[in-house]
Amino acid sequence: MSHAETIMSNPELLAGLVKLTKEAGDVILKIYHSNHFDVQKKGDESPVTAADLAAHHYLIAGLERLTPMIPVVSEEDITSLDIGRNNSSYWLIDPLDGTKEFINKNGEFTVNLALIEANKTIFGLVGVPITNTVYWGGQYLGAFRQEQNTSYPITPIECVKANSPIRVLASKSHLNEATKILISELGPTTLLQAGSSLKFIRIAEGLADYYPRLAPTCEWDTAAAQAVLEGANGSVKQTSGEPMVYGKRDILNPHFIAMGLS
Predict the structure, then answer these.
(1) Alpha helix (H) ranges present in the chain?
(2) Which of 73, 101, 113, 228 has the lowest tally of Cβ within 10 angstroms?
């Protein structure tokens, strides 16, 4: 039995992971609503805030408690990258995906936890702090949503079949010329925009159809939401048609296309 199957068959463990994702979002929101957060630059010039680091530490402690046998790779710990290259099974987390959206105060940021096995993402949790919602799922495991502020029921989610015009998602921060050209070749389209891993989630919920990404992303940007989308019967493939690969020597993803039911 895979770690993902173990999680899905253990209601207490699953609930603990959903709760951890939600609580990491609460840690982020406390800083978000304070209006006092310093923005620093990492070595690659990408921004990082106190919220990224606070969520990182909260998730690391929680995962060590809930799944002590599974090592963790985090965007906010560059020394952890070798774990993914040298272990067949590990957590891959992005404690705050959409730091630019966080800084711009538009609410479109997420908490991403993905379980990687044999270079594939097999289970993921995506928290949306601003709506107090957590999504989770994986290929052949289904996909689910739960609002966390009260005892809301767990709701299955699923992609829908695309109709014309195709609802195409593009990044708010990275809509480049190559993406515009690809979209123009699809025929009638309606262009939607969303930040962070929410683009995958929109497709998984049946609110969009197609997300081409012809600009740089890292493995931790995509793994969790890809698992949720695949659980909702969607797909994420390289533009070559090959599957996405995790735990590579180069943490950058190839260009890819995420989509629902064609």
Answers:
(1) 3-8, 11-32, 50-66, 81-86, 99-103, 177-184, 198-204, 219-231
(2) 101
Residues 34 and 150 reside in one and the same domain: yes
Considering only CA atoms, which of 84, 106, 108, 101 is closest in space to residue 220? Answer: 84
Same-domain check for residues 138 and 76: yes
pLDDT in tens, 164-193: 999 999 875 567 888 888 888 999 999 998
Cα separation, 24 vs 42, in Å, equals 21
Q: What is the pTM of this model?
A: 0.94
- Cα angle 145, 29, 155 (rounded to 5 degrees) comes to 5
What angle in degrees, to the nearest 10, is found between the helix axes of 11-32 and 50-66?
160
**Which CATH number fits the domain that encloses residue 239?**
3.40.190.80
* Domain around 251: 166-259
Structure tokens at 34: 């304070």
Taking only the tens place, the pLDDT of each residue in 117-137 is: 999 999 999 999 999 999 999
Main-chain phi, psi angles of 215, to 5 degrees:
-140, 165
CA-to-CA separations, 157 to 65, 83, 134, 204, 234, in angstroms, rounded: 29, 32, 12, 7, 11
Please tell me the total count of domains within the chain: 2
Distance separating alpha carbons of residues 51 and 54, to the nearest angstrom: 5
In this structure, is residue 251 part of a structural domain? yes
Classify residue 44: in a domain, yes or no.
yes
